[in-house]
Every structure is written in structure tokens, then in C-alpha cells.
Amino acid sequence: MNAARALLISFCSAPKDSPPRTTTTNLSSKSHLQFHSSRPCANFNASWRRRGRNSLMIRRIRDVKSESPPASVKVLLATTDDDAMVPWWEQFPKRWVIVVLCFSAFLLCNMDRVNMSIAILPMASENHWSPTTVGLIQSSFFWGYLLTQIAGGIWADTAGGKFVLGFGVVWWSIATMLTPIAAKLGLPFLLVVRAFMGIGEGVAMPAMNNILSKWVPVSERSRSLALVYSGMYLGSVTGLAFSPMLIHKYGWPSVFYSFGSLGTVWLGFWLNKAHSSPLEDPQLLPAEKKLILSNCASKEPVKSIPWKLILSKPPVWALIVSHFCHNWGTFILLTWMPTYYHQVLKMDLTASGLFSVLPWLTMALSANFGGWIADTLVSKGVSITMVRKIMQTIGFLGPAFFLTQLSHVNSPAMAILCMACSQGTDAFSQSGLYSNHQDIAPRYSGVLLGLSNTAGVLAGVFGTAATGYILQHGSWDEVFEVSVGLYLFGTVVWNLFSTGEKILD
Fold first, then answer.
1. Annotated domain spans of the chain
2. Where is each Major facilitator superfamily (MFS) profile domain found (predicted)?
């Protein structure tokens, strides 16, 4: 009894402001009611105040819990915290960063190439060059361009596209800046420097084809290639638009110095952002890496080239022949169009350069439009073979038709319109033969493009030189007739032998 009284006294004398208990009590239990019914009133009031404070704290905790996000939101936040830390410009798909950098490289490529077609007019006047000499100078670029097509493809497929494309841009930029110096030293030096410039540009297309075969999924192939090749057309637009102004204000050497120096700016971005494949990029987000690796056809590096097997396939020869036929007309217009405007349409240097812009601008727009059409058709279930044949047929027959109309028009406006329509339909080839290398041989796409583009370069060499010879002894109508005949021949070969199916693993 004394022990019970001592326990009751010690309980009653406990501080009123003691901290709340951490254990919870079931208020509805019978034992709890019986226990409290035996307490004195003062202890009962103190206990009630403590329970009030406890219940208040419990309500506050419940309120906080009710304000916290649900579990699904917590998971979402947890998975996006890392992405939120990445700047928006680094969340842009890395594969399209590679595509844009390749686009800008091809922009510089044609800026540095097409400036000669404008500068050659004051250069020829200053040095008293004949049309045959002008054709020789224009074709000398293709001597070096021819040498590095296949070699560039092998190099890119074995060493990686990043290094090869970077080398090419630096090489041709230096050669561009050396062109005025070589021209003052004499014709042989100019021919050598132009050939050296062709060596640098010759590796660009195989290297680009190699790197995009590893970075771009099959479903985005036509669009990506169309965008990259439209860089060539916009490069022609930029070169033809700015060259006359620079020549008029600073003289023809300024074109080569200013355009050539832009390669160093591009190189800084390329070295910092580009990698030969997604597997080599440590900054590539896991989701995009998974997307690329699961949808790209080319993954394994190439150790040896099965030349005999490649050359035994009819679709490969369809590519080679069609590339020759296509480039004959394209390179003639690329190098001789300002001269045509100047001689036939009687435009001055500035006007001929500016009006030469329109066909290339049309090509840039129609190439991307054609790429969108091709990828849409593929996504809707049309076979890749059928898509490639449709697009390339437009790329052949369109230019053939509009070139035949040039001999029947009398006004400069109609002649320029025919040129623009010819080049606009020509650009559908980017979703035809230019996309076909990755279709039929994704692992050897660089080599295959180098092989077919060698034929295309031969067309540039012979076609550009032959145009100068024809003009010295004939007329522009004869120049266009040869191009039309090759376009028609290419159409037949392409539709008989080409395919969109993979023929080489």
C-alpha cells in the first residue's frame, strides 16, 4: 500500500510541460479508460493538456503529409532531377547536333568551291585566259577530288568519321586561302592548289556518310541526309551571293581569304562536340544512346573491305552509273552557270552571281521537302526500294525536262525559272541515290559512297572540261543536250537495277 502511494505521488508530481510521449495510445481501449478514471483531477487535466498538444502535433504532421506529392510524382521528380540540371541547349538531341555540324561543313565546302565560278571571270580577264583554259582550271579541282573518294571512304570506315571530316575541312580551307598566291605565281601553281583543295573536299562525303550511318536511325535517314546536302546548296547560295560584293569592293583575292578562314571556326565546334559514334560520346544521354543503338544499321567497325563481293552486286553498279549521270549535269551547272548568265543572258558580274543563287536556294528547299516525303512514305509502309526509285526518277526526269526548255525560251526570267526548276527537281536525288548507300551496305557506306562518287567526280572532270571545249566550238544547246541524254540513261539503269534492301552485312 505504501509502495502504491509512493508511485501515485511521483506520477502526480511530474512536470506539466514534460515532452509528449512518442508512443501512441488507443483511446478507445477499455484498460485506458479504467486507468484514467482512477487518477486525481489535477493529473487528469495535465494529461488532457498533453494529449491536446499531441493531437495538435499529429494534425500538423498529417497536414504536412497531405501537402507532399503523391508517390508517382515523387518518382517522376526523382527521374527528372538529373535532366533538369542539364542546360536546354545540351538537351537538344546529340544526333542532330552531329547532323547540323555536318550541314555546316558542307556549307563551307560549297562556299569554297563555288567562289571560283565567280572569281574566274575577273581572273580570266586579267590573265587573258581562253574558255579552254578556264575549263582546265575549273576541272583541276576534280583531279584531287577524284583521288580521295575511295581512300576517304576506307579511311572513314576504319579510323572514324570525326577525324577524317575534320582533316578535310582544315585541308581545303588552307588550299582556298592559298589560291590567290598560286594564281599570281602562274597557271601551273594554280592548277596544283586547286587539285589540293579537291583532295580535302574529296574525303568529306565519305566521312559524313560514315558518321551519319552510326548516329542517325533508319527512320530519320532521308531527312538527315537531305539537311546535310542542303548545306551544299546553301553554300552555293552564300558563295554566289557574297562573292560579287567582295570582288567589287576588295578585289577577287578577298573571296578566297575570307571564305577559307571560316574553316577554323567550324573546327573548334567540331572538336568539342563531335564523336565518330554514340559509343564514344561520354556526354550522350542514356535514352538517346539506347534509341540510336537500337535503330541504327551500322554498329560494328570495319576491319577489311570485301571488294569482290561489293563489285559483284548489280545495285552497286546502279549506284555508280546513276551517280555519274547525275553529277554530269549538276557539276556543269555548278561551275558554268554564272558564265551562262553572263554570256547568254547578258548579265553583268554582280547580276549573274545573284541570279545564280536562285536555283541553289530552290535545291536547298526541295531537298528537305523531298526528305520529308521519303521518310513519311517509309513510315506509312511503302517499301524503301519503291521510295528510292520514285525520288531518283524525279531527280533525273525533272532536270531533263526543264533543260530541254532552255532552248525555247527568250526572256532571262524564263531561263532563270527553268534553271531553278531543273535544280529543284534534281535535289530529290538526296532521297534517292544519295540515301541508298546506307540502305544496301550500312557498314561500308563510306566506302560505297567513295566508290560511286568517284564516278560522279569523273563526270565533273570530263563534263566541266568538255563544256569548255563545246562552247569554244559549239553552243549551249549542245551542252544541255548531252546532260539530258545522260539523265535519261540514268533513269533506265536506276529503275532496272537499284534496290532499297540491304545486300551487304
1. 93-497
2. 98-502
